[in-house]
Design brief:
little secondary structure
Length: 39
């Protein structure tokens, strides 16, 4: 979606944004997690 290319070991952060599309050129793993805080 126009945010650039990630390579092995890279990370990306998304804050308060709608879902993103991820496309891989080869077999890959993508780890996604959500962090919530309650004060």
């Amino acid at each position: 979606e126009g945010v650039g290319t990630l390579h092995a070991g890279d990370a990306a952060r998304s804050t308060d944004e709608p879902g993103r599309r991820v496309t891989a050129r080869e077999a890959s793993e993508v780890l996604v997690w959500e962090m919530l805080t309650s004060l």
